[in-house]
Write a structure and sequence with these properties.
The protein has a single domain, classed as Vaccinia Virus protein VP39 (Rossmann fold, 3-Layer(aba) Sandwich), CATH 3.40.50.150. Helix content is 26%, strand content 25%. The protein has eight helices and eleven strands. Strands 3-2-1-4-5-11-10 form a seven-stranded mixed β-sheet, with helices on both faces. It has a two-stranded antiparallel sheet with strand order 6-7. A hairpin with a 2-residue loop joins strand 6 and strand 7.
């Protein structure tokens, strides 16, 4: 296993309880974004895979709306334990199958109609390998929809009464997360330019049918302190989230 992936697994096990109520369908990120974009327009009778399923809230959303089968893949055993608790009925009925493992390694999953990922894909240190795996999980004509922190949002912070860019948008090097959330574990993350994601998706074979940088819809969940990462003030001027809507071509 990639050493960054190993470190990130320990990190997510250490903070799993902090993200039980993290963004999940029908929204695609903080500030309530994406629920008006129709990105999961058909659910009943269809099959899904969530990459980085976390606490399983999106899985339950799909099952409650008639999904035939939902797979959930996550790196963290502690995250999956919460997902299992939250989807016990679906697991017992066979509608839900949870898989522990890194997104960079091919899992045994029957081809699905749609792959989704809400704020998880950007953690991969090997995006080309991850996207190749996701492409293989889809039926021909299947849809891949995912969201992530907008890199420009991640590069901007509040200092001395104004927002400043404190990291080059062009600098796509790994960033260390020492003692993340004060839980004693460290990890690593790389923020990539939107153009890099476009190229990676095309290299993997995807058609990109939609790209979104939605403005905030609900500011109640943000911080009213401009020094916080997800501050209301920053979200009003910089998109917090990017969303890609992709398609695997028909045969």
């Amino acid at each position: 296993m990639n050493p960054i992936v190993s470190d990130n697994q320990r990190l997510w096990d250490s903070v799993a309880d902090l993200f039980v109520d993290a963004s999940s369908l029908p929204v695609w990120g903080p500030f309530g974004v994406g629920d008006d974009l129709g990105l999961v327009s058909e659910i009943e009778g269809r099959t899904f895979l969530e990459i980085g399923c976390g606490s399983g809230r999106s899985i339950r959303y799909l099952v409650e709306r008639g999904a035939k089968k939902v797979y959930g893949l996550d790196l963290s055993p502690k995250q999956l334990a919460e997902a299992a608790r939250h989807n016990r009925t679906g697991i017992e009925s066979g509608q839900v199958q949870l898989i522990q493992g890194p997104m960079e390694e091919r899992a045994r999953i029957e081809p699905v109609d749609q792959v989704i990922s809400v704020y998880a894909l950007g953690w991969t240190p090997e995006p080309a390998k991850t996207l190749t795996n996701i492409y293989s999980y889809l039926k021909p004509g299947g849809r891949f929809t995912w969201s992530w922190d907008h890199s420009f949002f991640a590069d901007t912070w509040y200092k001395d009464g104004q927002f400043i860019v404190d990291h080059s948008y062009h600098n796509e090097v790994p960033r260390d997360l020492p003692n993340w959330k004060n839980r004693g574990a460290s990890g690593n993350i790389t923020y990539r330019k939107a153009s890099t994601w476009f190229q990676l998706l095309r290299d993997a074979g995807f058609e990109i049918v939609g790209y979104h940088e939605p403005p905030p819809k609900n500011l109640d969940g943000g911080h009213d302190d401009p020094t916080k990462y997800y501050s209301i003030q920053k979200a009003k001027i910089i998109p917090a989230t990017l969303i890609f809507d992709c398609r695997k071509p028909e045969l």
